[in-house]
Amino acid sequence: MEMPRPKITPRPPREKPVRIPYTPPHHPVIQALIDKKSVMSAVMLRDMRTRFFDHGLGFIIVPLWPLVHMAIIIAIHSFAHPVATYGDSVPVFFMTGVLPFLLFSYISRFMAFSLLTNKSMLAFPIVKISDILMGRAALEIIAAFLTLFSMLLLFYAWGDNPFPADWESATECYLATIYLAFGCGYFVGICALIYPVVLTIFQLTIITLYVSSGVFFVPSNLPDEVSKFLFFNPITQCIEWFRTAYYESYSDKLVSVPYVIGYATITLMAGLLLERSVARHISDR
Question: What are the structural domain ranges in the chain?
Answer without folding.
Answer: 30-284
